[in-house]
UniProtKB/TrEMBL annotation:
Residues 1-95 form the USP domain. InterPro entries: Papain-like_cys_pep_sf, Peptidase_C19, Peptidase_C19_UCH, USP, USP_CS. Pfam families: UCH. Keywords: Hydrolase. It comes from Astyanax mexicanus. This is Ubiquitin carboxyl-terminal hydrolase 20-like. GO terms for biological process: protein deubiquitination. The keyword Transcription does not apply. One of its GO terms (molecular function) is cysteine-type deubiquitinase activity. SUPFAM superfamilies: Cysteine proteinases. GO terms for cellular component: cytosol; nucleus. The keyword Hydrolase applies.
Length: 95
């Protein structure tokens, strides 16, 4: 694929499962993922994207629950949205 214009909002989907030949089935990868708050894509003409939301899945490949962490631009505070519950979220920033 070739992009002629870069999107205003970049959405990335991480493949978090892999085939396990021992069990002849797919297994979910529950390892931690470090996500940068600023993503500089040099190969894409130096475009910069700022992280403002992450959707997470808790559960297995056959079932589970989704929740989201979203950054408020007005307060620069992160919140977790889990069904009808919304509460402040502490985000670890590694420099």
């Amino acid at each position: 694929y070739e992009l002629s214009k870069f999107p205003e909002v970049l959405i990335l989907h991480l493949k978090r499962f892999q085939f396990d030949p021992t069990y002849n089935s797919y297994k979910k990868d529950n390892s931690r993922v470090s996500i940068p708050h600023h993503l500089l894509l040099l190969l894409l003409q130096g475009n910069t994207y700022d992280l403002y939301a992450v959707v997470c899945h808790a559960g297995t490949l056959s079932g589970g629950h989704y929740y989201a962490s979203i950054k408020s631009f007005e307060e620069c505070q992160w919140y977790e949205f889990n069904d009808s519950m919304v509460y402040p979220k502490v985000i670890c920033i590694h420099v």
